[in-house]
Design goal:
about 160 residues; mainly alpha; 7 helices; globular
Length: about 160
């Protein structure tokens, strides 16, 4: 793609995912505001949607890269062939993270939001590559406490927790 004297390469897949996330967030926010603008109804949805839309806007430039010269079709194909792709092992870790998230959603009602959050954060960090024992012991309980206390303060209905 050329704009003026500058040439850019667009990662269309990345841009499409960002656009879909932004579209769904905007649609959900619009639906929420159309239903009711009462503070109790938009207390959580409005800030989260605005933050998600801002993050999408910040990420968009990463999908568009400036290139120094015109790249021929043959050299572009060579670059695509040499680009690293995910191995089956990497895809397995991704699938495991999806399964752990499903177990988290299932276990929130059964063992409590606090313990389920702590376990999910711990397993998620491990699956994503964190191997330092100190980080796995310190960060998840602190994050779980912040998340649980924040949700209990924001959401007006009781939430099942084991400790809090």
């Amino acid at each position: 793609m050329r704009i003026g004297n500058h040439y850019y390469r667009v990662d269309w897949g990345h841009l499409l995912v960002i656009a879909m996330i932004a579209f769904i967030c905007a649609l959900y926010l619009r639906d929420t505001l159309a239903t009711s603008t009462h503070v109790n109804n938009i207390l959580f949805v409005l800030p989260v949607s605005v933050i998600a839309l801002m993050l999408c806007a910040i990420i968009v430039p990463q999908a568009v890269k400036k290139v120094d010269k015109i790249i021929s079709y043959e050299s572009e194909l060579k670059v695509k062939e040499e680009a690293p792709s995910e191995t089956w092992r990497d895809l397995g870790w991704i699938a495991l993270l999806v399964i752990v998230f499903g177990l988290y959603v299932y276990s929130v009602e059964r063992i409590g939001f606090d313990i389920a959050s702590w376990l999910f954060i711990t397993l998620g960090l491990y699956i994503c590559g964190e191997r330092r024992l100190l980080a796995l012991l310190i960060y998840p309980p602190i994050a779980a406490v912040i998340i649980v206390v924040g949700f209990l303060a924001l959401i007006p209905y009781p939430m099942y927790t084991l400790i809090f």
